[in-house]
């Protein structure tokens, strides 16, 4: 009996000692998807379509080379391309950054370093420099606020330069 009790104590000691001496590794949850595409709909009509070369899912969603198409009544109203983007799972907050180019419905283009989405207010915004190029003018400013479809865009502190011959 004494032998079995010693063996049991030795076994418990060995298990405890071995278990405590090894470092515990933490596993980080991460997913990676190539050629990612997501569509958010309202009824049967798309509100936006997000395509990206790569999606990394870890504490949110990070996309590389995003192409975001914003829709109004199911039809494209703007296209956004950039180097990177980040959005939460419910698309309440998003940030697109790195050589951002927005093409509006009227074919004018907006160039900026980043643009953010506020899902509560349903607006796009930035406080960084903006340059909007239209057929008739170039508008530069210190930031931008736009509605959810990018159909109403307000450049902050705009400086308008008319194009000759327009």
Core attributes:
166 residues; mainly beta; single chain
Structure summary:
The chain has 166 residues and is mostly beta strands. Helix content is 12%, strand content 57%.
Folded structure, characterized:
The protein starts with a helix and ends with a strand. The protein has a six-stranded antiparallel barrel. About 12% of the residues have low confidence. The chain is mostly beta strands. The chain has one domain: lipopolysaccharide transport protein A fold, CATH 2.60.450. The chain has one helix and 14 strands; from the N terminus they run αββββββββββββββ. It is globular, with a radius of gyration of 26 Å. The longest helix is centred in the first third of the chain and has 20 residues. A hairpin with a 5-residue loop joins β6 and β7.
């Amino acid at each position: 009996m004494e032998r079995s009790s010693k063996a049991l104590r030795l076994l418990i000691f060995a298990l405890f000692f071995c278990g405590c001496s090894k470092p515990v590794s933490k596993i980080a949850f991460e997913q990676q998807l190539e050629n990612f595409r997501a569509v958010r709909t309202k009824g049967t009509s798309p509100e936006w379509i997000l395509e990206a070369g790569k999606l990394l899912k870890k504490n949110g969603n990070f996309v590389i080379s995003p192409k975001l198409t914003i829709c109004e009544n199911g039809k494209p109203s703007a296209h956004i391309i950039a180097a990177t983007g980040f959005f939460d799972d419910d698309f309440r907050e998003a940030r697109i950054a790195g050589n951002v180019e927005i093409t509006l419905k009227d074919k004018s283009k907006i160039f900026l370093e980043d643009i953010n989405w506020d899902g509560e207010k349903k607006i796009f915004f930035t406080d960084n420099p903006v340059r909007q190029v239209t057929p008739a003018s170039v508008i530069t400013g210190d930031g931008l606020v736009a509605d959810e479809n990018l159909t109403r865009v307000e450049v902050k502190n705009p400086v308008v330069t008319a194009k000759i011959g327009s």
